Amino acid sequence: MNHNQRIGRWGEQAAADYLQKNGYTLLEKNVHASHGEIDLVARLEGVTVFVEVKTRSNRGFGLPEEAVSPRKLAHMRAAAELYAAEHEIDHWQLDVLAVEGVPGVAPRIEHFENV
After folding, report:
1. What is the architecture of the domain spanning 3-112?
2. N or C: where does the chain have the smaller number of CB atoms within 10 Å of the terminal CB?
């Protein structure tokens, strides 16, 4: 596993921990769909939340959330729609969790809801 993969996995775990600490129930991680991967699937108050996690160890390439392009959002929506249809989910939303930091240090997490 290379550096970027380690940082990405660490960021996904930090995001999952953040969601759980904030009352979400984590349902699945790394769900593969025909339009891409859904990083996290969680639930809060009757709403299923499909989460894209973007992690950066520093701001050399910009903020993590800046990596979520309109094209990425379209792929997220298509993957979420398919998942929701297959699992008979009526109420859902797309969220982005932007994680900054490195393993061993508390991350900075910004939560963008219902993108």
Report:
1. 3-Layer(aba) Sandwich (3.40)
2. N
